[in-house]
């Protein structure tokens, strides 16, 4: 698990965050830990495909699963309810965010703002479902969405060695052997929600 990425997500004051990784297993492992460290939150797993959302929700321990389209319709109805109470402990986890359209991203951001939810977009910003489709997740990142990038330590070390940053490369390799206490970050996340 990438402790730095998890710590940064847990301690972020931002309501909208990104988690970028080409390795879905690595992403799911981090999300499983995130759900475990935030038992007070209501976790919603969203994906284009309901069966994928259900499978990932079960894998990471999220309480609810929706297809993205179904969830947007549901939250559109909630937003129009004058008696709705904001749920600041809701965390919407978007699986494969690179598959979202611009209108879906806009609806999710607008509804999350109205309902008080936090959104964690996960996916690979360099992957797109079709050549013609622009990647809304990449554009969010390019427009300064606070994003953590998961990269295997050995891959990161290799890149640093190529850039002649030997000391940082050794730190990256050693980091996988280190255990970092993240209770402090967990406390800040709970305060932010």
Name the features:
6 strands; alpha/beta; 9 helices; single chain; 193 residues
Q: Helices, strands, pairings?
A:
Layout: H1 3-11, E1 16-20, H2 24-37, E2 42-47, H3 50-60, E3 64-67, H4 68-80, E4 90-94, H5 102-115, E5 118-123, H6 136-142, E6 147-149, H7 153-162, H8 166-175, H9 183-192
Parallel strand pairs: 1-5, 1-6, 2-3, 2-4, 4-5
What does this structure look like?
- The chain has a six-stranded parallel sheet with strand order 3-2-4-5-1-6, with helices on both faces.
- The protein is built from nine helices and six strands.
- With about 190 residues, the protein is of the alpha/beta class.
- Helix 1 runs parallel beside helix 9, helix 4 packs across helix 5 and helix 7 packs antiparallel against helix 8.
Task: Give, in order, the helices and strands.
Answer: HEHEHEHEHEHEHHH
Class from helix and strand fractions:
alpha/beta
Mean pLDDT over the full residue set: 76
What Rg do the Cα atoms give? Answer: 17 Å
How helix-rich are the residues, as a percent range?
40-55%
Query: Can you count the beta strands?
Result: 6
Unreliable parts? 153-162, 164-189
Number of helical elements: 9
Global shape: globular
What is the terminal separation in angstroms? 23 Å
Beta-strand residue fraction: 15-25%
Q: How is the biggest beta sheet arranged?
A: 6 strands, parallel
Strands ordered across the widest β-sheet: 3-2-4-5-1-6
Question: What is the gist of this entry?
Answer:
The chain is α/β, with parallel strands linked by helices.
